[in-house]
């Protein structure tokens, strides 16, 4: 994964009033930290940042952050957004090394058509929308896919069932259910025993 260039300006002023002025001017306040780098308050162009984080690599894109001529390999962390407009209002940039394993949160997407469930009137419940993974920065996937095409009523898929790219591991309980195929409302996933069978067993 190639780094996406992004220029940051050192912030001399701090505080909420300064942050509001920056946001109004089309810049996002941020901080750079990690790998022995003293935390530095910076600001980045809002449009450039949005473009970097909506590229093919997504929010976990590797960024080549230019801070007053010093280049840092960073990943965006702690993205804060406006509660209504959902525009970015603050971001932390973590300095990383290409050779270290880092944690990142990635989306869990469902693929395929669970016809065995829908034709029976059932529903598929998507329980885990994102999950923490561990990988080297360049290996962090944009998302993880879960194929639900083979699901039948009563089936479930767990985190451990997800096919992972090379070099990626899930940093969570692998027995956590990701999707569950429910029967039609009012029905049980397990068929009830017939009264005659129950009498025969007694």
Defining key terms:
Ribosomal Protein L25, Chain P, four-stranded mixed β-sheet, six-stranded mixed barrel, RNA Polymerase Alpha Subunit, Chain A, domain 2, disordered C terminus, 202 residues, 14% helix, 4 helices, 13 strands, mainly beta, elongated
Brief characterization of the structure:
By secondary structure, the chain is mainly beta. It has helices at 16-24, 46-53, 115-118, 195-201; strands at residues 4-10, 27-34, 37-45, 62-67, 70-81, 88-95, 102-111, 123-126, 130-135, 143-147, 156-158, 169-170, 177-182. The chain folds into 2 domains: 4-96, Beta Barrel (Ribosomal Protein L25, Chain P); 103-182, Ribosomal protein L25, C-terminal domain (RNA Polymerase Alpha Subunit, Chain A, domain 2, Beta Complex), CATH 2.170.120.
CATH superfamily of the largest domain: Ribosomal Protein L25, Chain P
Give the CATH architecture of the largest domain: Beta Barrel
Indicate the low-confidence ranges by residue numbers: 191-200
- Number of helices, counting only DSSP H or I runs of 4 residues or more: 4
Helix-strand pattern? EHEEHEEEEHEEEEEEH
Structural class: mainly beta
Count of folded domains: 2
Strand order of the largest sheet: 1-3-2-6-5-4
Described by its quaternary structure, the protein is: single chain
Give the fraction of residues assigned to helices.
Answer: 10-25%
Which fold name is given in CATH as the topology of the largest domain?
Ribosomal Protein L25, Chain P
Distance between the termini: 65 Å
């Amino acid at each position: 994964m190639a780094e996406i260039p992004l220029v940051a300006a050192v912030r001399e002023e701090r505080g909420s009033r300064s942050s509001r002025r920056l946001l109004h001017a089309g810049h996002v306040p941020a901080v750079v930290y990690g790998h022995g780098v003293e935390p530095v308050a910076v600001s980045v162009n809002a449009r450039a940042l949005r473009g970097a984080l909506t590229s093919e690599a997504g929010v976990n894109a590797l960024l080549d952050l230019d801070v007053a001529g010093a280049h840092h390999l960073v990943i965006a962390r702690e993205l804060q957004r406006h509660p209504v407009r959902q525009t970015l209002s603050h971001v932390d940039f973590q300095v990383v090394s290409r050779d270290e394993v880092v944690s990142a949160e990635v989306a869990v997407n469902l693929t395929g058509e669970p016809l065995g469930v829908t034709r029976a009137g059932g529903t598929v419940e998507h329980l885990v929308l994102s999950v923490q993974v561990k990988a080297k920065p360049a290996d962090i996937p944009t998302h993880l896919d879960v194929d639900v095409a083979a699901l039948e009523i009563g089936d479930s898929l767990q985190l451990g069932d997800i096919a992972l790219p090379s070099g990626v591991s899930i940093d969570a309980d692998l027995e956590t259910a990701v999707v569950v195929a429910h029967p039609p409302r009012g029905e049980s996933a397990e068929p009830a025993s017939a009264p005659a069978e129950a009498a025969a067993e007694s």
